[in-house]
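Quick entry between incubations.
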Amino acid sequence: AAGVIQSPRHLIKEKRETATLKCYPIPRHDTVYWYQQGPGQDPQFLISFYEKMQSDKGSIPDRFSAQQFSDYHSELNMSSLELGDSALYFCASRRQGGTEAFFGQGTRLTVV
Amino acid sequence: DAKTTQPPSMDCAEGRAANLPCNHSTISGNEYVYWYRQIHSQGPQYIIHGLKNNETNEMASLIITEDRKSSTLILPHATLRDTAVYYCIVRTRPLHTGTASKLTFGTGTRLQVTL
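Done. Structure below.
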């Protein structure tokens, strides 16, 4: 069965650079969630989208932005990267009315 | 969403049942109990969810107390591959009108299955 696809799987950036993370939800899933998980921490909700509209916002820094496109894939844009942005970034998708969210394997971002 | 409390860690012998408790004393009537697990740095994986009745699927059983203030996830025959962090999450069921109904992860239980 198709799963949530995230790319890239690994990314190394320098401080103050920009990064773009991509998420391709399961087909026919219209809701996307983004989470950040720092080393040794639990996943923290960043932002979510339903039908290409922002649905909810968590602890997402102003330096980050995200959007969901017409094909339902989503991108998380991160600017002025800081060392503290080094983390695993997970995307999850869910179909409207579905009971569970399915997570991708994550993108590991390392800022040096 | 209601707050949950779980023990930080538990051990279980392989082949035995693993019983993971969760307290959610402030749960409201329209909130469901969800369980996810995260195997080392992988994406969290859905296990099971329930409202008030006990639930069972191919992975686990979920026992919810009658007052709904606590629940227990049961892995009937734990294997080494069940070693993971288990998260108990309480949230409202996603509505059909377009809300995303996020999952809020607390501090889960680190289950270590041993030989």
